[in-house]
UniProtKB/TrEMBL annotation:
InterPro entries for the chain: Leu-bd (IPR028081), Leu_Ile_Val-bd (IPR000709), Peripla_BP_I (IPR028082)
Signal peptide (UniProt feature, chain positions): 1-23
Name of this protein: Branched chain amino acid ABC transporter substrate-binding protein
Record bears the keyword Transport: yes
Length: 374
């Protein structure tokens, strides 16, 4: 009886070992962005985009080093705050994530990038557009969207050539993103021989813009550009109308959102324009099907950056497949060789970590929607 019990026990151990060998290896990827606060809708949008990429990879099955792996997303809330972002970055590193999708804002991405560089963990941002992010020349820092210099150049040409604006005022929220975008616009305007009639500053928590708008009203601008996010961009637009400022309203991708339309209410009209890094979703190679699957999976429409978040997560996975390993030390060098057709277009990086084929699109508000202007 003892011998039989021993045989049964050994068989059980063998089955347990076999089951363990067959079990999927879990590979954790981090996501970092504002999941609470005024721009949490953008953070959740990107979180869902990354999650959909992992869902798709898991459904197809990925084998690394001869073992099937299952990807799990570890989301962290950086509140779009630089200091919180570094804490979040360290938390993700300590948790052993093999790569990070994020951060959402430039102000958070820039300080967090140093943490990832020191740890050797690759991070790919879907939406942080400040040129300063990749100018640091960190080996672990990548971006799947066009940067602010490209947006600034596009808006400067549009404002002066299409809108015939000559008296352009500029406001920014003093964040890395907002100020970077405004600086890019000003630099490009000067190249076109246009000097702004006013330059004002606010912050990304402000709600009252009456003082700076009153000063700008005296300069009689025919266009006002705002560098910042929709949470401040919308009340700024409302207060422009309240003060009787009839200038065209210009912004970057931070105000090019469905939330901007909701928050601005009746103040938003056909005199509101914005640039967006990348191309319209309906012009993306896989944009239509992505939008349908996203809506079905999360019961909410794409806000803005979800397709880029999907491609950022996919790029990390593609590099792992090239390296046949989820070890950051092994797959990081392969990110330079990644090239695939993503939702947004061809995903491939230059030597600095920027996307090779980043485009810029321009939109105008009409009848409750952002309409692409070819």
């Amino acid at each position: 009886m003892k011998q039989r019990a021993l045989i049964v026990a050994l068989a059980g151990l063998t089955m347990t070992a076999s089951t363990a060998a067959m079990a999927d290896v879990v590979v954790k990827l981090g996501f970092a962005g504002p999941l609470t606060g005024p721009v949490s809708h953008l953070g959740k949008d990107e979180q869902y985009g990354a999650q959909l990429a992992l869902d798709d990879a898991n459904a197809k099955g990925v084998v690394l080093g001869g073992q099937k792996v299952r990807f799990e997303l570890m989301p962290e809330d950086d509140q779009a705050d630089p200091r919180t972002a570094t804490t979040v970055a360290q938390r993700l590193v300590d948790a052993g994530v093999k790569g990070v999708v994020g951060h959402v804002t430039s102000g958070a991405a820039i300080p967090a990038s140093r943490i990832y560089e020191q740890a050797g963990v690759p991070s790919i941002t879907p939406s942080a557009t400040s040129p300063k992010l990749t100018q640091q020349k960190f080996k672990t820092t990548y971006r799947v969207i066009a940067n602010d210099m490209q947006q600034g150049a596009a808006m400067a040409r549009f404002a002066t050539e299409a809108l015939k604006a000559k008296r352009i005022a500029v406001i920014d929220d003093r964040t890395a993103y907002g100020q970077g975008l405004a600086d890019a616009l000003v630099d490009n305007l000067k190249r076109l021989g246009v000097t702004p009639v006013g330059r004002e500053f606010t912050n990304d928590k402000a709600t009252d813009f009456s003082a700076i708008l009153t000063r700008l009203k005296a300069a009689k601008p025919d266009a006002i550009f705002y560098g910042g996010m929709d949470a401040q961009g919308a009340p700024l637009l409302r207060q422009m109308k309240q003060l009787g400022i009839d200038a065209k309203y210009l912004g970057g991708d931070g105000v090019c959102t469905t939330e901007m339309i909701k928050l601005a209410g009746p103040a938003i009209n056909a005199d509101v324009f914005c640039t967006q890094a990348g191309i319209p979703m309906d012009k993306m190679p896989a944009g239509k099907s992505f939008n349908e699957r996203f809506l079905k999976r999360f019961s909410t429409p794409v806000q803005l950056y979800a397709p880029y978040s999907y491609d950022a997560a996919s790029a990390l996975i593609e590099a792992m497949k090239l390296a046949d390993s989820a070890d950051p030390a092994r797959y990081l060098p392969l990110l330079q060789k990644v090239s695939f057709k993503g939702v947004t277009g061809t995903v491939a990086f230059d030597a600095s970590g920027d996307i090779r084929e980043g485009g810029v699109a321009l939109y105008q508000h009409q009848s409750g929607k952002w309409l692409f202007r070819p």
